[in-house]
Amino acid sequence: MAVVRIPEEGRSFHVDSEVSRALAAIGIDFSRVEVPAEVAAAPSDRVLATYAREIAALSARGGYVTADVIDVKPSTPGLDAMLAKFSKEHWHDEDEVRLIVSGSGVFHVRPKDGPVHAIEVGPGDSIRVPAGTLHWFDLCASREIRAVRLFKDPAGWTPRYTESGAEKGFQPVCLGPAYHPA
To answer: How do residues 147-161 score in pLDDT, each as one tens digit?
Structure first.
C-alpha cells in the first residue's frame, strides 16, 4: 500500500483513495492491483502474463509499446552505481510507469508549484510519473524491488539531471510513518 508524505507540511496519506487524490493533484497517476503471492518470485514472462490486462490498459492510455520486468536486489551487480543515477533529482522525456510486484522504494516528486511529495510504493502499487516531472527514487532498507516497467521508447527514459540539489534535504530511504526530512 502506497503512503504519500508531504514532510514540509507534516501531512501524510495512507488510504488508497486519499493517496490517489493527493497524487492526482500533482499529476501523478496511481492505482492498486492484486499481487498473487506466487507471482512475486515467478519468472519475468509469467509476471508479464499475469499483468497482461493491466499492461494492455496502461499501454492503450499512454501509448506504451514495450514492457519488461526489473528485478533489483542487494546482489545486483553495480547496484550502488545504478541507484546513484536515480537518487538525484531528474526528469525524463517520457513517462516513468511502474507496477510494483515485490519490494519497496520511494519516489520523491517535486511539483513546480508546491512541496516535495514522498511516495512510498510497495507490492500492488501502480504509478505513472509523467514525462518532465522532477523526481528522484531510492530503494527502501531491504534494497529490493521488482516491478513491471512500460515504455514508449526505452532510450527516451534517460534521466535528465537538474543539479538543483533538492534531494539533499530528504532521507534516501523509506522510514515508515515516522518519516521526516533530514
So the answer is: 999 999 877 678 999
